[in-house]
Write a structure and sequence with these properties.
Layout (H helix, E strand, L loop, with lengths): L5 E2 L2 H23 L14 H28 L1 E2 L1 H28 L8 H22 L1 H16 L14 H9 L10 H22 L2 H13 L5 H17 L2 H19 L3 H14 L10 H9 L3 H30 L14 H6 L1 H15 L4 H15 L4 H5 L2 H34 L1 H12 L4 H15 L5 H18 L4 H14 L8 H10 L3 H11 L1 H12 L15 H23 L8 H14 L4 H34 L1
Antiparallel strand pairs: 1-2
């Protein structure tokens, strides 16, 4: 009897994968390519046919990618797996065709969706969920299914969770598949097409032309005497780039393709590497001077000067990045990563220094074009055009120019894999938008919070995170400040302080589970689990969640005194000292490591003391400073006591 398995050669599968990836990459670049001089633009293409076609291509690539991964481990494919996967592709093609037909009708008439349209939408959800489960694990897929269940049955839920009734098939069809704003092919998917794709392609070309490997070799040589040196470089690079780009996701895919491998090579885990990159990239939006254009919007909205906004955010932004450096420092200690004096990095050649131009030139062009007002997509494509001829400075590229085409194709494969996770994120965002739960939640609870500033702040923070799930930071910030702004001001909070509080949590939403879109993008590069990467990123970014509460109670942290109050240098310096100690305590507590492993009780105590240190109450802060210094002193004494027997044995 013949075996139920049949062999499939890996090479044809890999060739097919690269062909599909290259087609997707070129189509995506053509869609967003800006016009140059007298050269006409190719895109943007009509969304009625381009989005479903692009999605179908992503599904095909994801299927072939799964085949290749299976062949690498088992070297054979079960025929039922092939049949099932081909059925998924067939279902996707039909759903994409129906999307085009319905979208074309909607341009000229009102369309009422029927049961078959709802079944079509559910079929698209089924395909997205199955493939996302395969590529990214169960958590995201399960959350997507829960969101789908709530969308369909929300009118049957009790109390505040109950949603409006209406035609369920129409609700499912319009929100899950056939809508251009929400659903699988909605605004989140559009972000992939317009912003993320060109940066991923740029990163793939950077890696393919040898620039990435040269950067790693040089970084290891320059930073081998520092714990976690490449991670420090990643934080700086991502912060500097993120303040200009204004998009955490674009920042992740633009710089992460270089920085994440550097972090991994030093010995950090995949999830930690992705977490560092996504945390640093998200923080770019709160980092002066540009803050991703938010500084200009906030200044106009609040009615203050641009310089006032920059001055206000300076200390919180520096504190956040200091906490990221400390997070890497304690993680390196915990893992026992030394200063690698005994490490033998690859020899740095003269060509490696020349190859640095392949990184510096494209990034400098991106920053320059963004400052001049060009879109992120246009800036990244311009950088690609500069990088392609520059790549031939590397003799390896002159000997094998096909590496460039392969790099572009591999970038397309990465985009397709990420798109399948974003498809499920689109289901979640569509449910939030359709049911109106985020807005209802904020409005109803704002009344319950009118007697407590802390409750109002907590509700505002939660509302920002929920509303910011999958939504660009600026729209989320504007929407939530319109709802909760009056409540915060009713407690006497300065207008700028209220706006800054809302904006910080709007930024935090891109790394907060379950819709941590920046963390998912980082996971696609690091190879880690998306949800685990998001959790790690949230832990590393804890200061971003704590600092807004601190400056809400103590506006001096924003270098903005209370109305009518006089600025006090001594109070300002005391606040900075408290903040420095709080950062050390909270980052070591979350890492559960300082000079040695921390017990759960000691970690909890450090975290509580850090919270007290961030409060504006003088007596409490003086006590917390005293206890914190004493706690660190005891820990240092215990650590030295532990080392003494080891030193004695070594001497004997």
């Amino acid at each position: 009897m013949s075996s139920p398995f049949y062999p499939v050669k890996t090479m044809p599968i890999n060739t097919l994968l690269l062909l599909l990836g290259g087609l997707l990459a070129l189509a995506g670049l053509a869609n967003v390519m800006p016009g140059y001089g007298n050269l006409p633009r190719v895109g943007p293409f009509e969304i009625e046919w381009f989005r479903p076609t692009f999605f179908a291509l992503c599904v095909a690539i994801a299927v072939v990618f799964g085949w290749r991964e299976k062949l690498l481990t088992e070297e054979r494919l079960h025929p039922l797996r092939v049949i099932f996967d081909l059925a998924l592709v067939g279902i996707t093609l039909y759903c994409s065709y129906r999307y085009y037909v319905i979208a074309d009708l909607m341009m000229f008439s009102i369309v009422f969706f029927d049961n078959w349209d709802a079944i079509t939408a559910l079929a698209a959800v089924f395909v997205s969920t199955v493939i996302c489960w395969r590529l990214w694990g169960a958590p995201i897929a399960i959350i997507g299914l829960l969101a789908l269940t709530y969308l369909a049955t929300g009118h049957l839920w009790p109390g505040l969770m109950q949603t409006a009734g209406g035609n369920v098939p129409d609700k499912l069809a319009s929100n899950l598949w056939f809508g251009s704003d929400n659903g699988i092919l909605g605004s989140i998917f559009a972000v992939i097409l317009s912003t993320v794709l060109p940066f991923i392609i740029l990163g793939a070309v950077l890696d393919g032309c040898g620039a990435g490997s040269s950067m790693i070799r040089i970084s290891f040589r320059l930073m081998q005497r520092f714990r976690g040196g490449p991670a420090y470089a990643a934080i700086l690079a991502s912060g500097m780039f993120g303040t200009v780009s204004g998009s955490a996701v674009a920042n992740v895919v633009g710089t992460g393709v270089v920085t994440i491998p550097m972090i991994r090579k030093r010995g950090f885990s995949k999830n930690f590497a992705g977490g560092v990159e996504s945390s640093a990239s998200a923080g770019g939006q709160i980092l002066p001077p540009i803050m991703g254009a938010a500084a200009l919007v906030m200044a106009d909205y609040v009615g203050v000067s641009y310089l006032t906004v920059i001055l206000a955010v300076l200390i919180p932004a520096i504190a956040y990045y200091v906490s990221l450096f400390l997070g890497v420092y304690f993680e390196a200690r915990r893992l026992g990563i030394s200063m690698v004096e005994d490490e033998a990095p690859e020899q740095v050649q003269t060509q490696d220094w020349v190859n640095l131009l392949l990184i510096i030139a494209p990034l400098a062009i991106i920053v320059w074009l963004l400052v001049r007002g060009m879109s992120p997509a246009g800036a990244s494509i311009s950088a690609i055009f500069v990088l392609l001829p520059l790549s031939f400075l590397n003799p390896e590229m002159r000997q094998a120019p096909m590496r460039l085409l392969k790099a572009v194709a591999e970038g397309g494969v990465t985009v397709a894999r990420l798109s399948m996770a974003i498809a499920v994120v689109g289901i979640i965002v569509a449910t939030l938008a359709s049911t109106g739960i985020p807005t209802t939640f904020a409005v109803v609870l704002s009344g319950a919070s009118e007697y407590s500033l802390l409750a109002a702040l907590a509700i505002t923070a939660l509302g920002c995170i929920i509303l910011g799930m999958g939504m660009p930071t600026l729209p989320a910030y504007i929407a939530i400040i319109a709802v909760m702004g009056p409540t915060l001001q009713a407690f006497g909070m300065e207008l700028l302080t209220a706006h800054m509080f809302v904006f910080f949590f709007g930024v935090a939403s891109v790394i907060t589970p379950p819709v941590a879109i920046a963390a998912y993008a980082a996971a696609s590069i690091s190879g880690g689990k998306p949800m685990a990467t998001a959790i790690t990123s949230t832990r590393l970014s804890m200061v971003m969640f704590l600092i807004p509460f601190a400056f809400a109670y103590n506006p001096l942290m924003l270098t903005v005194a209370d109305a009518g109050a006089q600025f006090s240098l001594s109070a300002y310096l005391w606040m900075l000292a408290q903040l420095a100690l709080a950062l050390y305590l909270v980052t070591s507590a979350l890492a559960r490591f300082d000079r040695q492993q921390l017990s759960l009780a000691e970690s909890g105590l450090r975290f509580v003391l850090a919270i007290v240190l961030l409060s504006p109450y003088l007596a409490a802060s003086v006590l917390a400073v005293s206890l914190g210094i004493a706690l660190l002193g005891v820990h240092l004494w215990r650590h030295r006591a532990t080392l003494e027997p080891i030193a004695t044995l070594a001497t004997d």
